[in-house]
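Appendix B, Record 12. Input sequence as logged:
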Amino acid sequence: MAEQSVLEIKDLHVAVEGNEVIRGVTMTIKQGEIHALLGPNGAGKSTLGYAIMGHPKYEITGGEVLLDGENLLEMEADERSRAGLFLAFQYPVSIPGVTVANFLRTALNARRSEDEGKISPMAFRKLLTDKMNQLGIDRAFAGRYLNEGFSGGEKKRAEILQLATLEPKIAILDETDSGLDIDAMRVVADGVNQLLGPEMGILVITHYQRFLNYIKPDFVHVVLDGKIVAQGGPELAEELDEKGYEWVRDTYGEKEMAL
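Logged structural output:
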């Protein structure tokens, strides 16, 4: 059995335009685990995801991010993707004139090594068909321009299809439930659940416990003011939903925890 891949975030500090947003976050995510990161607006949740993926707007001012012992902070964003990271955006952008299928094939080829070479059209067609069947997505979806005229739910399903096609070691889902009604949220969650397994670790970033009714986390982390102040199992998310973030602030204050 292959050794599990591990994403290690160690005492990470991140600044945006000179303002410190992440103030010492430590977290370890292994393949096969589902972690949930909850916090109010402005707590630093999305900043953490973008910083890990290498967005140039987010300046790492301290700490380490390692994937299987390799320093991700020395890699460009595309190198981090090829190493096995994936970020599903909260607000996916449209790309007029580029079909979903062409976008996914380009993204897949960009991740493949020189030894692997580019995937053939026939092999890609079979791969994409298999993934769409697995997720219950109509084949006509592949011929549409990426996110052009898509509903919120369709944009998120396109992100999940990308996740399925690229098969990363560790996936970060940045508020995938944002702007979705209950039915769309369930459809997206069902797609994520179809992909869960020992080959993929997932960090779900969300405001609300309700999304976790459909995707069951193994570990829950609560972030306030750029620090993880509480952690536990799924019961922590349920308690947070009942009592709110002020309860976390009153109970845990500035105490920082690590997992």
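Residues 6-92+169-252 form a domain with the Rossmann fold fold (CATH 3.40.50.300).
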